[in-house]
Automatic annotation (TrEMBL):
This is GHKL domain-containing protein. Gene3D superfamilies: 1.10.287.130, Histidine kinase-like ATPase, C-terminal domain. Residues 328-424 form the Sensor histidine kinase NatK-like C-terminal domain. The keyword rRNA-binding does not apply. The keyword Transmembrane helix applies. Coiled coil: none annotated. Signal peptide: none annotated. Keywords: Membrane, Transmembrane, Transmembrane helix. The chain crosses the membrane at residues 7-25, 45-74, 86-108, 120-141, 153-177, 183-203. One of its GO terms (molecular function) is identical protein binding. Pfam families: HATPase_c_5.
């Protein structure tokens, strides 16, 4: 048994330890470079672990110092970060690993494990715990750009390392009593560690795939909004051409009246043109001069009129804003579409939308209030769930708004009270240069 366990601790377990450390570094700093210096660094670390495992290179009291130096070296050659961040991450990894090993050994002693297998079983189980902790750290890391996986699936995933640790403990206990199972314990331990590593890797890939799918849907939505914006601009262009053509005819008629001395008729004609509102549309409620905002608001206003929804708009913004047109389209388009969706489920007398938008001191504030049939449900991350059947497509409205706001350090606030849903968005133009 000791021969097999010596082989594991000397050659195979260091490989798993390097894989786990690689997960931690990736979680903290993201994917690194695969340059030759990085590969040499990992090989040197592996050689250190192998020689340290056989007690050739370092006495046990210097093993911790050697690990700290090696992890710091790996951090430095594979990631371009500040020296301060390298030091903090190195101490974090090594300290947590040492703490986990101490806790595991104390737990094994507490349950009465045979001392001859505590070191080996503790090595396996501590690596399992560190692998699990890397997944937890990756899930709650602030900069992790993975989609949120349902909590029930995450809990099911956590059962894998828990059951594996239980199995490892009893396997090594069995080996302590029956030496003929030594080879089985070696193979079982290695396989369980590899299975857990693969499962957690698949877990990460699922999160990445979900995030990619969400982004693809967001891009499709952006294309739809941009397409609608292009149609609106084309409509404005055609309307401008019609106005120029009609104005030419009007001016020709007025000129004829003036040349004929019919000044009173010419004045009446001009007054009639002013009363009719030349160049204005009856279905327009926004006249800021900002093509993106005006086209979207007026389009949603026309849809509200068809559905019998009272729509009020108080928009006080300049014609030119320091924000990307695509982001404005996403924010106004999604928020107004959500309001229309909620109002369509209400009786006629309860349908209303109130839009307010102001730009003061380099800050754009958007507030929309609308009638809502009921308090909407939220998911585990606090986002409101869509009430449409096709939730795969429609459930990303507020998420896309939050993503657009993030580029300007913006904020999104939602509140439901007494049958009214209120959403407010704030964008800061002075944060654009800092980003």
């Amino acid at each position: 048994m000791r021969e097999y366990l010596s082989i594991i601790s000397g050659f195979l377990l260091p490989v798993l330890q390097l894989l786990i450390i690689q997960r931690y570094i990736t979680t903290l700093f993201g994917s690194g470079s695969r340059k030759l210096t990085g590969m040499i660094g990992w090989l040197l670390y592996y050689a250190f672990l192998v020689t340290a495992g056989f007690g050739i290179l370092f006495p046990p009291q210097f093993l911790l110092v050697g690990n700290i130096l090696m992890v710091f070296m790996i951090n430095t050659v594979t990631r371009k970060e500040s020296l301060k961040r390298h030091c903090i991450s190195t101490l974090l990894i090594c300290t947590v690993w040492m703490l986990v090993e101490v806790i595991v050994l104390l737990a094994l002693e507490a349950v009465g494990t045979d001392k001859c297998v505590i070191d080996v079983a503790g090595s396996f189980i501590s690596k399992m715990c560190m692998l699990l902790f890397s997944v937890l750290l990756g899930r709650y890391a602030k900069k992790k750009q993975y989609a949120e996986i349902p909590l029930r699936y995450f809990i099911i995933t956590l059962l894998v390392p828990a059951s594996s640790s239980y199995m490892m403990h009893h396997i090594f206990l069995m080996t302590a009593l029956y030496a003929e199972y030594s080879f089985f314990s070696v193979v079982a331990g290695i396989l369980l560690l590899l299975i857990n590593y693969v499962i957690f890797t698949v877990y990460d890939r699922v999160g990445q795939a979900a995030e990619l799918q969400s982004r693809n849907r967001l891009y499709e939505q952006q294309l739809d909004l941009c397409s609608h914006q292009a149609e609106e601009r084309e409509g404005y262009y055609l309307e401008l051409r019609r106005m120029r053509h009609d104005m030419k005819n009007h001016l020709s008629g007025i000129l004829g009246m003036v040349n004929a001395g019919q000044t009173k008729e010419a004045g009446d004609y001009i007054q009639k043109m002013l009363d009719d509102g030349i160049g204005t549309g009856s279905d327009e409620i926004s006249h800021t001069g900002n093509i993106v905002v005006d086209s979207l608001v007026n389009h949603k206003y026309a849809l509200a009129q068809k559905d019998g929804i009272r729509f009020e708009a108080r928009i006080f913004i300049p014609s030119v804003l320091p924000f990307q047109s695509g982001h404005l389209a996403i924010i106004f388009g999604n928020l107004l579409e959500n309001a229309l969706e909620a109002c369509r489920k209400l009786p006629q007398e309860q349908r209303y939308i109130i839009l307010e938008a102001t730009y003061i001191k380099e800050m754009l504030q958007i507030c929309i209030k609308n009638g809502s049939p009921e308090k909407l449900k939220k998911d585990s991350s606090g986002r409101y769930l869509t009430t449409k059947e096709d939730n795969g497509w429609h459930g990303i409205g507020l998420a896309s708004v939050e993503q657009a706001l993030a580029d300007y350090n913006g904020e999104l606030f939602t509140k439901y009270e007494h049958g009214e849903f209120r959403v407010s968005a704030v964008l800061y133009s002075n944060s654009i240069e800092k980003n």
